[in-house]
UniProtKB/TrEMBL annotation:
It comes from Nostoc cf. commune SO-36. It is an enzyme of class 2 (transferase). Its EC number is 2.3.1.35, 2.3.1.1. Keywords: Acyltransferase, Amino-acid biosynthesis, Arginine biosynthesis, Autocatalytic cleavage, Cytoplasm, Multifunctional enzyme, Transferase. Heterotetramer of two alpha and two beta chains. This is Arginine biosynthesis bifunctional protein ArgJ. It is found in: Cytoplasm.
C-alpha cells in the first residue's frame, strides 16, 4: 500500500510555489505557449536531460547552471519553437530569456532555469517572448498549475498533472508535477518536458540522486516511436517550505520521499 495520497493542485500543491500559463503569440495556433513556475524562496534544483548528441540551447544552459549552482527560483518554458540547432544566436536568445524573466521577477538570472519545446531548427520568437514575460509574471498564482500545464503542451491531446502528499516527521510533505510529451519518446526520455515541485528540505546531492533514479524507473523506461529528442528535460525543485528537518543522507525519510518522487514521475 502506497505511503501517500493523491491531492489536487499539481505543481502549486507544495507550499511556496506559484505558476502561470499564458498565450504570448509563440504558437501559430494561438493556444497557450508560455509557462512559468516560481518558488517564493530559493529552492534546491536538480535536472535530468536528453542524451542526444544534439542538444537545444535551453538544455546546454540548464546543464551549465546546475553544475555551477544547485538551486533556482524560476522555470520558464516556451512552446512553439524548440530553439534547437539554432547556433550561437539561439544560445544568445536563451541568455536573453533568462535575463528578462529574472528582471521581471526581481531575482538573479542565475536562479532561472529554462525549457523550450516545439519545432526544431526554429529560434524562439523573441518579440513575442519579450512582450509575454510581464504578462506571465502578472498571471502567477497559487492555483496556476493547470494553466502552466496547458501552456507547455504541443502535440499532446491532454495535459498531464499530479500531486501527492505524505507525512515526514509528523508534517505533510507534498510533491507536484506537470509534463508534456506524446511523440519522439524513446529511452532516454523523449520530446518530453517534466517539471516537479517539492516542499521538503533535501541536500542538493541527494535530491539529484533521487531524481536520476526516479527518471530511470519512469521516463527512461518508455518507448513510443524509437526517437529521442534535443530538448528532453526533467527539472525538480525542493524549496523546504514544509519546514520538516533537512534530509541529508539515506534513511527512512529519504526512502519515503524518493518513493513519492518516483510515483509522481510514473503516473
Amino acid at each position: 500500500m502506497a505511503d501517500w495520497q493523491e491531492i489536487t493542485g499539481g505543481i502549486t500543491a507544495p507550499r511556496g510555489y506559484q505558476a502561470a500559463g499564458i498565450t504570448a503569440g509563440l504558437k501559430p495556433s494561438g493556444l497557450p505557449d508560455l509557462a512559468l513556475i516560481f518558488s517564493e524562496v530559493e529552492a534546491i534544483a536538480a535536472g535530468v536531460f536528453t542524451t542526444s548528441q544534439v542538444k537545444a540551447a535551453c538544455v546546454e544552459y540548464c546543464r551549465q547552471r546546475l553544475q555551477a549552482k544547485h538551486s533556482a527560483r524560476a522555470i520558464l518554458c516556451n512552446a512553439g519553437q524548440a530553439n534547437a540547432a539554432t547556433g550561437t544566436q539561439g544560445y544568445l536568445d536563451t541568455l536573453e530569456s533568462a535575463m528578462a524573466i529574472a528582471q521581471a521577477l526581481n531575482i538573479s538570472s542565475e536562479s532561472v532555469l529554462l525549457a523550450s519545446t516545439g519545432v526544431i531548427g526554429q529560434r524562439i520568437k523573441m518579440d513575442a517572448l519579450r512582450s509575454g514575460i510581464p504578462k506571465v509574471v502578472a498571471a502567477l498564482s497559487e492555483t496556476g498549475s493547470d494553466a502552466a500545464a496547458g501552456a507547455i503542451i504541443t502535440t499532446d491531446l491532454v495535459t498531464k498533472s499530479i500531486a501527492l502528499e505524505t507525512t515526514i516527521n509528523e508534517r505533510p510533505v507534498r510533491i507536484g508535477g506537470i509534463a508534456k510529451g506524446s511523440g519522439m519518446i524513446h529511452p532516454n526520455m523523449a520530446t518530453m518536458l517534466a517539471f516537479v515541485t517539492c516542499d521538503a528540505v533535501v541536500s542538493p546531492a541527494l535530491w539529484q540522486q533521487m531524481l536520476a533514479r526516479a527518471a530511470d524507473r519512469s521516463f527512461n523506461s518508455i518507448t513510443v516511436d524509437g526517437d529521442t529528442s534535443t530538448n528532453d528535460s526533467l527539472i525538480a525543485l525542493a524549496n523546504g517550505q514544509s519546514r520538516t528537518p533537512a534530509i541529508t543522507e539515506w534513511g527512512a525519510e529519504a526512502e519515503k520521499l524518493e518513493a513519492m518522487l518516483t510515483a509522481v514521475a510514473s503516473i
